[in-house]
Amino acid sequence: MEITSLQDKLGRPLRDLRISVTDRCNFRCSYCMPAEIFDKNFQFLPKDDVLTFEEITRVSNLFVRAAGIEKLRITGGEPLVRKDITDLIRMLSTVKGIKDIAMTTNGSLLAKHAKALKEAGLHRVTISLDCLDDERFRKINGRGVGVDQVFEGISAAEEAGLGVKINMVVQRGVNDHDIIPMARHFKDTGIILRFIEFMDVGNSNGWNLDDVISKKEIFERINKEMPIEPIKPNYEGEVATRFRFKDSDNEIGIISSVTDAFCSTCSRARLSADGKLVTCLFAAGGHDLRDLLRSGASDEKVIERMAEIWGNRHDRYSEERLQNTDKKQIRKIEMSQIGG
Ligand code: SAM
Ligand code: SF4
Ligand code: SF4
């Protein structure tokens, strides 16, 4: 069976796949893996439960056949803590039909890996960085890692010829005063910075709507200092709203998953490190593919299952949240399991 386009219950196609390669991380960002919960007693996935590189490559191949996807994003946890991750990139770069392989990383280990990742076939990295202030950054990442280490990663990625974007999660009272310094810094370097509204992912980050700085407020704060104007999306379903600085061609983005939801164009599937297909960032769980893969099922059987899962999808959590803020009470998968 060859299917080239899939649609869910709300008519949304499946365009890209985000693959979490590990649920482990060398950071403990409070909005994602708070240290009090993800402590030394926390049970991470046993090695045998995690998909092998061969399994991930097979699934990617089958997603191309099932839905014609062209983009893969490797994430985690922290993808660069997965041993021999470069080998996976090399394997994925042989998947016919995939035109773009990106990675989301905290950047702390990137200086070591950037060149090899590029050579293996990685195209782009999105590096998470929440402020420029060293002391504050050490606190936010919960592991005392300094900003210099991330900047070394950024430079190495640029030198290696990888596309680079920066993501900053904005939390009121934590790093909202860093919005302007970050915008100014990256405007000068020409790297696209994207502000992300603090989201109520998982159940452990103590999310509160009052801590969210809205897209509108981020826009207004930047616009007051450095006038910006909206520009057209690069493609349908792009999650960041794009803006350009009026005095240059450099741009920034704002990802407004809380105050201006974009579920109607959401075309992403997520694969957890243990092989669950997750159809929404805020889902309670995923649909297991690992057992099927390990049961000796044929490619056709796996494709059929993927099509069935996507065909039954009707998630629109962020739109529903706008109507019902009690939504935060429900049990949700943790961000570190599916990687954003
Ligand atoms: N460890 C990698 C990193 O930090 O880039 C990849 C995984 S991380 C879960 C993926 C992205 O999700 C990061 O950009 C991170 O900042 C973002 N993220 C995590 N928790 C979030 C939250 N509660 N709200 C908004 N973004 C969040
Ligand atoms: Fe780790 Fe990324 Fe989560 Fe921070 S956001 S704890 S770096 S997985
Ligand atoms: Fe997609 Fe779910 Fe986010 Fe809506 S809430 S944009 S459906 S991941």
UniProtKB/TrEMBL annotation:
S-adenosyl-L-methionine binds at Y31, G77, S128, M199. It comes from the Bacteria. SUPFAM superfamilies: Radical SAM enzymes. Gene3D superfamilies: Aldolase class I (3.20.20.70). Its cofactor is [4Fe-4S] cluster. It catalyses: GTP + AH2 + S-adenosyl-L-methionine = (8S)-3',8-cyclo-7,8-dihydroguanosine 5'-triphosphate + 5'-deoxyadenosine + L-methionine + A + H(+). GTP binds at R18, R73, T104, K165, R268, A269, R270. Its EC number is 4.1.99.22. The keyword Transmembrane does not apply. [4Fe-4S] cluster 2 binds at C263, C266, C280. PROSITE patterns: MOAA_NIFB_PQQE, RADICAL_SAM. PANTHER family: MOLYBDENUM COFACTOR BIOSYNTHESIS PROTEIN 1 (PTHR22960:SF0), MOLYBDOPTERIN COFACTOR SYNTHESIS PROTEIN A (PTHR22960). Catalyzes the cyclization of GTP to (8S)-3',8-cyclo-7,8-dihydroguanosine 5'-triphosphate. Belongs to the radical SAM superfamily. MoaA family. This is GTP 3',8-cyclase. It comes from Anaerobacillus arseniciselenatis. The gene is moaA.
